[in-house]
Design goal:
The complex is a heterodimer of chains A (632) and B (238).
Chain A lengths: L39 E5 L5 H5 L6 H9 L3 H9 L5 H7 L3 H5 L2 H4 L5 H14 L16 E5 L3 H12 L3 E6 L7 H4 L8 H13 L3 E5 L9 H5 L4 E3 L5 E2 L12 E3 H9 L9 E5 L3 H14 L2 E5 L11 H9 L3 E3 L2 E9 L2 E14 L5 E5 L5 E4 L2 E4 L3 E2 L10 E2 L2 E2 L6 E3 L2 E3 L2 H4 L4 H19 L36 H4 L13 H8 L13 H5 L5 E3 L7 E3 L9 H5 L5 E5 L22 H30 L16
Helix pairs in contact in A: 2-3, 2-18, 3-7, 4-7, 7-18, 8-16, 12-13
Chain B lengths: L1 E9 L4 H17 L3 E5 L12 E9 L16 E4 L4 H4 L11 E6 L4 H5 L4 H4 L2 E7 L1 H4 L14 H9 L15 H12 L4 H5 L5 H9 L2 E4 L15 E4 L4
Parallel strand pairs in B: 1-4, 4-5, 5-6
Antiparallel strand pairs in B: 1-3, 2-3, 6-7, 7-8
Helix pairs in contact in B: 1-7, 7-9
The chains are: A alpha/beta (632), B alpha/beta (238).
C-alpha cells in the first residue's frame, strides 16, 4: 500500500510509541532521582591490609601483588622500590612478618609474599636499565654521613637519594653490605645478588661508599657530627663471649666471626664435629655452613626446647633436612682441650629462666654433666657493638639510645641493630627509611611526627564467599642431600612466572579496592560509575543511589563501607526534591514534556538512520510516512 | 482552630510508625469532639523499602470541607520519622510562613540538623523539635535497622497496610515518643487526651519530657525590624 500524499499526525509518527526511556538510557534517570531513599551512603574507603601494616618498610604488598596478578611486573617492581631498595635481598632473607599477618591464613594458607617479592626484585635486577634512575630528583647539594653499609645504612642512603640528598657511607669492612655479606651465608643470599643490589643503588649517583673506614678509628665522632646530618647504622658485629672454663682453646670461635670470614671469602677452619652454642638464626646459619664447609656434623646446643628456638620456621625445617642435630635444654659448662686445641666439651641439662627484671639466664641441673666430643665450638649467644668511641651517655650495653624518632641528639640519628639489638634485615631497612624521612624533616625545618594510626582490615571484614580455597604455591627447594655439600648452592629457589602469578592471584586485597567491578555489576540502580576499572575510579551517583547497600554487602575486599547519610554535612551536596517523586515543583507535568523531547530525539535519530540507509541504496526518501516521495 | 499534620517516613521499615502518629493524633482530636480526618493508607507506595511515604491527619473545630483532597495542602505540623528525610525533600511545601512545627527523630544536635534546612524552609518554621525517639522507644528485636520490630513482625505489618486491619497495637515503638514530642511542643492537644490513644503511654511520656525545641520568632511584618536569632530550650521536665 502506498502512503504517498498521506498526512500522518505527528503524534502517531513514533517508531516506538509512548515508551518512557529506561533509566539506563541517556537522561532517563532524571525522571526519577531516587537518592532521597537513602539513609546510608556507600563510600569507598581503603583500609590498610595487615601485610602492609606488618612490614617494617611499609611495602605496599597488596598493590604489587595485584600488579603481578595482571602481569604488570614493571609497575610491581616500581611499587616495591618506593619503600624497599633491595627486594632481591629481602625476597630471600626476610622473615616475612607480612606472611605471618596475612589474612589468607584464616582462609586457607598465607600468601607466599616473600617469593613474589623475590620474583619482582630479580625482574628489576635483570632490566637493562633501572627504571628508578629516571624518576629521581636532582641532587640538592646536601650530603649526609652514614656509618655502616648494612641494610639500614643502604636504605637510608637510598631514601635520602629519593629526596635529593647525597650521602657518604663509612664502612669498616673491605666490602659493603654489612651483615648482609658478613652475617648471611652465600647459600641464603648469594654474593652476586647483594653485589647487584648495591651496584644498582650506586648507579643512581649521589651515594658514595668508603670501605675500610672504621668509625672511632678512621673517622672521629666530631668529624661525623660536622655533616649536616648523620645516621649511625653500625650494626652489632661483635659476638658475646661465653664465660666458661677452657673457652680460650683453639677451635672455639664466635659464630658471627666464622660467618663473616666465610662471607668475605677468607679461608676458615672448621672441623667435622661442630658444637654450635646458642639457639637463634645465627646459630642455625653457622651450623648449616659448618656442615657445608667441614663436611661433618653440627649440633645446636640450646637452652630452649626445639619448639621454642627463635629460628625462622622454614630455616629450622631446612636445617633439620640438612642433618643439623639439636641438643635442647642443654648448656655448655666446660671446654675440654688437648695441646691447646678443643677436643670436647662438658654439657649438662639446663633451662632458660627469666628473673624478675626479665633478663634470661641458664639454670643448670646438677648431676647431669656429661662429656661430648667435638673439634670445633661456635658461640652464637648474641652480639654487641663496641661504642667506646662515642660519648659515654649515648651507649648502653652495646646499643645506642635514641628517642621515638630514632634521634640520638642534635643532627644524629640511629637505626638497625645498634639501636634495637639483634634484629632482622627488614627491620633495619625500615629504620633506614624512617631515618631518611626524619633527616629530611630536620634539614627542612619540619616538625617530627609520629605515623598516624591506621585502620587494619580484619579477615572478618572480607566477603570470604568470593575467595575460592587455593593451596599456597610453595617455593621450590634445592634437594637437601646435594645442597648440604655446597656453600654456594642457593637453598630456596625462585618462583616461575606462572607460579608468581598464581600466588599473587590468591591475594584477597584486604580492605583495598582492586577494581573487581563487583559493585559496578551488582548495583540495581546503575548508580556505581567508573571511567576505568581501577582503584580510585569508582564513584557513587548519589542523586540516584537508594542506599540499598547491596554493593557494600557484596564487596569482596571490604573497601566499601556504609556511612550514615547525615554524616555528610555539606549543604551544597544535598539533592532535595520538591515533592516525594519528582525532582522539583511541578515536575510531574514536566515529565511529559521531557519524555516527549527524548522521544523526538529518538525519532530524529531513527529518521537519520533511515536517510543514511536510503542514501546508501540510492533512494531518495527520508521518512516512511513523509510527503517527500517514497518508493514502494 | 485547624491543623494539618503530615508525617514523612520511609517505606516498609518505618511505615507503621508514620501511620501510628497520624492515627493517634486524629483519634485524639475526634475523641475531644473536634472534626478530624486521618489518611493513613493512601497516595504513597509503602511497599518499597526506604521509599518516601506520607501519612496525613487534619483536625479543627469546624467541619473539614475538602474531604476528598488527601494530601495536606498547608501542613503546619510536620513529623520526620527518620532523620535523613531532612535532606531528601521539601517537606514544608505549602506550610504558611512562621507557623510550622517540625518534629524530627534524631540523636544529633539541633544546630547540626538545621544546617540542612535552607533559609526558605527555616522561614516557615515556628518550632524545630528534635527528639531521640529511637533512644526513648522500647527496643524490640535485634536489628536497629528495623527499629522496634523484627522481620517477622514487619511481615505482618506489610499485610496491614493499604487498609488492612492492624495486627499490632497503635502507638508503639518510635511512634510513641514522636507523638509525645509533637503534642508537647505544639500545644495543640492536651497531652493526657492524646496519651489515652497511644499504646505505649510510657514511651510517649518520655517523648513529652525529653526533647529539644528551637523556637523561631514570628516573621516581622513587611518593612519591620530584622528578626532575632532563634532561641533554644530543652523540654523542662526531664
Amino acid at each position: 500500500m502506498s502512503v504517498r500524499g498521506t498526512r500522518v499526525p505527528a503524534h502517531l509518527q513514533l517508531p516506538i510509541a509512548g515508551v518512557t526511556p529506561p533509566p539506563t538510557e541517556k537522561d532517563g534517570q532524571r525522571l526519577f532521582p531516587t537518592g532521597n531513599f537513602r539513609s546510608f551512603r556507600p563510600v569507598y574507603k581503603d583500609k590498610t591490609p595487615p601485610c602492609n601494616n606488618a612490614c617494617p618498610t611499609g611495602e605496599q604488598i597488596q598493590k604489587y601483588l595485584d600488579y603481578v596478578k595482571h602481569e604488570r611486573y614493571l609497575d610491581g617492581y616500581l611499587t616495591i622500590m618506593e619503600d624497599n631498595p633491595m627486594p632481591s635481598v629481602t625476597g630471600r632473607v626476610c622473615y616475612h612478618p607480612c606472611e605471618t599477618a596475612c589474612n589468607r591464613a584464616a582462609h586457607d594458607e598465607p600468601i607466599g609474599i616473600r617469593s613474589v617479592e623475590r620474583f619482582l626484585g630479580d625482574y628489576g635486577l635483570a632490566l637493562a636499565e633501572d627504571p628508578i634512575a629516571g624518576t629521581l630528583p636532582a641532587l640538592n647539594g646536601t650530603t649526609v654521613a652514614i656509618v655502616g653499609s648494612g641494610p639500614a645504612g643502604l636504605a637510608c642512603a637510598y631514601h635520602l637519594r629519593r629526596r635529593g640528598y647525597s650521602s657518604v657511607i663509612f664502612e669498616a669492612l673491605d666490602k659493603p653490605g654489612g651483615m648482609l655479606r658478613a652475617g648471611i651465608p652465600h647459600w641464603h643470599l648469594p654474593e652476586e645478588i647483594l653485589d647487584a643490589e648495591i651496584a644498582k643503588l650506586l648507579g643512581f649517583g649521589g651515594i658514595e661508599i668508603r670501605c675500610g673506614v672504621r668509625a672511632g678509628q678512621d673517622i672521629s665522632w666530631d668529624e661525623l657530627r660536622s655533616y649536616p646530618a648523620t645516621f649511625l647504622a653500625l650494626g652489632q658485629d661483635v659476638g658475646r663471649r661465653l664465660p666458661v672454663e677452657g673457652i680460650q682453646a683453639r677451635g672455639v670461635t664466635g659464630a658471627l666471626e666464622f660467618l663473616r670470614e666465610a662471607g668475605l671469602g677468607r679461608p676458615v677452619q672448621i672441623g667435622r664435629q661442630v658444637l654450635v652454642i646458642g639457639g637463634g638464626n645465627t646459630a642455625s646459619d653457622a651450623a648449616r655452613s659448618a656442615i657445608r664447609l667441614g663436611g661433618g656434623e653440627a649440633v645446636i646446643v640450646s637452652l630452649e626446647s626445639e619448639d621454642e628456638l627463635p629460628i625462622v620456621p622454614e630455616d629450622l625445617e631446612q636445617a633439620r633436612d640438612e642433618g643439623v642435630a639439636f641438643a635442647p635444654h642443654t648448656s655448655l659448662t666446660k671446654v675440654l682441650s688437648s695441646a691447646g686445641h678443643v677436643t670436647g666439651a662438658v654439657v649438662c641439662d639446663a633451662r632458660l629462666k627469666k628473673d624478675a627484671s626479665g633478663a634470661v639466664h641458664p639454670e643448670l641441673v646438677p648431676g647431669t654433666e656429661r662429656e661430648v666430643s667435638c673439634d670445633t665450638i661456635l658461640v652464637a649467644i648474641g652480639q654487641i657493638q663496641q661504642l667506646e668511641w662515642l660519648p659515654e651517655h649515648l651507649g648502653d650495653h652495646g646499643v645506642i639510645t635514641a628517642d621515638e624518632h630514632g634521634r640520638v641528639e642534635g643532627n644524629v640519628f640511629v637505626g638497625g641493630d645498634v639501636m634495637r639489638g639483634p634484629s632482622m634485615v627488614v627491620d633495619a631497612l625500615g629504620d633506614g627509611r624512617r631515618a631518611a624521612r626524619d633527616i629530611d624533616r630536620l634539614l627542612t625545618a619540619q616538625e617530627f611526627q609520629s605515623d598516624p594510626p591506621v585502620e587494619i582490615m580484619p579477615y572478618e571484614g572480607l566477603n570470604s564467599a568470593y575467595f575460592r580455597h587455593a593451596p599456597r604455591v610453595e617455593a621450590p627447594l634445592f634437594p637437601a642431600a646435594e645442597r648440604r655439600r655446597s656453600q654456594r648452592v642457593e637453598v630456596t629457589l625462585a618462583y616461575s612466572r606462572e607460579q608468581a602469578i598464581a600466588e599473587a592471584d590468591r591475594c584477597m586485597s584486604c580492605g583495598v579496592c582492586n577494581g573487581c567491578d563487583n559493585c559496578y555489576i551488582v548495583c540495581p540502580d546503575v548508580s556505581v560509575m567508573r571511567d576505568a576499572r581501577e582503584n580510585g575510579h569508582y564513584s557513587i551517583r548519589t542523586t540516584y543511589c537508594k542506599g540499598c547497600l547491596v554493593c557494600v554487602q557484596e564487596c569482596p575486599t571490604g573497601c566499601l563501607e556504609k556511612v550514615p547519610e547525615m554524616d555528610f554535612d555539606d549543604p551544597a551536596e544535598v539533592t532535595r526534591m520538591e515533592t516525594a517523586f519528582a525532582p522539583y515543583d511541578g515536575a510531574h507535568a514536566e515529565q511529559s514534556a521531557f519524555t516527549r523531547h527524548l522521544i523526538e530525539e529518538t525519532i530524529a535519530e531513527y529518521d537519520a538512520t533511515r536517510r543514511q540507509a536510503a542514501a546508501a541504496n540510492g533512494k531518495s526518501t527520508t521518512h516512511p510516512n513523509g510527503d517527500s516521495g517514497v518508493s514502494q | 482552630m485547624y491543623h494539618e499534620l503530615t508525617v514523612w517516613s520511609r517505606g516498609i521499615i518505618m511505615d507503621k510508625e508514620a501511620r501510628d502518629v497520624s492515627s493517634c493524633i486524629a483519634a485524639a482530636a475526634r475523641a475531644l469532639g473536634l472534626y478530624a480526618d486521618n489518611v493513613s493508607d493512601y497516595i504513597d507506595d509503602p511497599d518499597r523499602t526506604n521509599c518516601l511515604v506520607r501519612r496525613y491527619a487534619r483536625f479543627g473545630d469546624s467541619p473539614i470541607v475538602d474531604r476528598f483532597v488527601y494530601e495536606n495542602p498547608h501542613p503546619d505540623w510536620v513529623v520526620l520519622v527518620e532523620e535523613t528525610i531532612i535532606k531528601a525533600v521539601n517537606f514544608l511545601r505549602g506550610t504558611p510562613d512562621g507557623s510550622g512545627v517540625l518534629v524530627i527523630n534524631s540523636a544529633r544536635e539541633p544546630e547540626y540538623l538545621l544546617k540542612f534546612l535552607p533559609a526558605a524552609m527555616q522561614a516557615k518554621l515556628a518550632k524545630f523539635v528534635v527528639v531521640d525517639a529511637v533512644g526513648l522507644a522500647e527496643q524490640r528485636g535485634s536489628s536497629p535497622w528495623m527499629f522496634v520490630r523484627d522481620l517477622g513482625e514487619l511481615a505482618y505489618d506489610r499485610m496491614s497496610t493499604e487498609g488492612a486491619e492492624e495486627r499490632l497495637a497503635i502507638g508503639m515503638g518510635i511512634a510513641a515518643p514522636l507523638i509525645g514530642a509533637l503534642v508537647a511542643a505544639s500545644g495543640g492537644l492536651p497531652v493526657d487526651d492524646v496519651a489515652s490513644q497511644v499504646a505505649d503511654r510510657d514511651a510517649m511520656m518520655r517523648g513529652v519530657e525529653r526533647h529539644t525545641v528551637i523556637e523561631f520568632p514570628r516573621p516581622a511584618p513587611s518593612g519591620g525590624p530584622a528578626t532575632p536569632a532563634p532561641a533554644v530550650h530543652a523540654a523542662s521536665a526531664g
